[in-house]
Amino acid sequence: MHDLPPRFWPIFFELYESLPRQGPGSRACTGKALELCRDLPSAPAILDLGCGVGGQTLHLAELTLGTIVALDNHVPSIDRLRATVAERGLAGRIRPMVGDMANPGLPPKTFDLVWSEGALYNIGIENALRVCRGLLRSGGYLAFTDAVWRKENPPPEVKASFDMDYPTMGRVPDALASIERGGLSLIGHFTLPDAVWWDDFYTPMELRIGEMRGKYSDDADALAVLDRLAQEPAMHRSYSDYYAYEFFVVRSKN
């Protein structure tokens, strides 16, 4: 992002770290994607790349009998997930760790399933697919979500918003072409319903922004940042037909 005020990132992380999820998704969508991974072992070795505070990590623990390495480069998010894992007695199954998605430092061909919701774009989709493919055992699955355009010629404010964070964002056929070039086999894909942008993401975000406005009521700089952050759910409310999140499930060919 360009031309951000000095207070932007501290306020951004204070907001996002307090949310159940750091992007669109739901337990039901996680379950639907898992159903496409038909040949997983009974207790798969799972890697959750870019896990954030672990909303989907916990769903994976509920929906499988597997062990999960949950990796993110943001230390406070991993600290929060570690606390949640300890509180829920899941330390034997979930291992949160700080790491770089581009260079996770994990042994190759270790995982039956690599999972990533709304995070792979940070290192470039084609680079991310290469990294994930190297971590998968033969026949292993990769399940990931990615933002995609649904219509041509989005309004300038929508295009500018995505260009700041994801300038190479394409459409579903572009993602499918990247999957093919990455030497992975497509198993299936589906569009996340609009409700999952709200239930555990934008609705709690707007509530939290309201609480933070009270906390920072005498802080004009913080309020300006909150105004900026509030534009995202407001934009989605008006223009959600122009873009979506797509869930892709693919499989290693070797």
Keywords:
seven-stranded mixed β-sheet, 254 residues, globular, alpha/beta
Question: Could you describe the 3D structure shown?
Answer:
Helix content is 44%, strand content 22%. It has helices at 8-16, 27-36, 55-63, 75-87, 125-135, 156-165, 172-181, 195-215, 220-239, and strands at residues 45-49, 67-72, 94-98, 111-117, 136-149, 184-191, 243-252. 35% of the residues are buried. α3 (55-63) links the parallel β1 (45-49) and β2. A 7-stranded mixed beta sheet has the order 3-2-1-4-5-7-6, with helices on both faces. By secondary structure, the protein is α/β, with parallel strands linked by helices. It has a single domain, classed as Vaccinia Virus protein VP39 (Rossmann fold). The protein contains 9 helices and 7 strands.
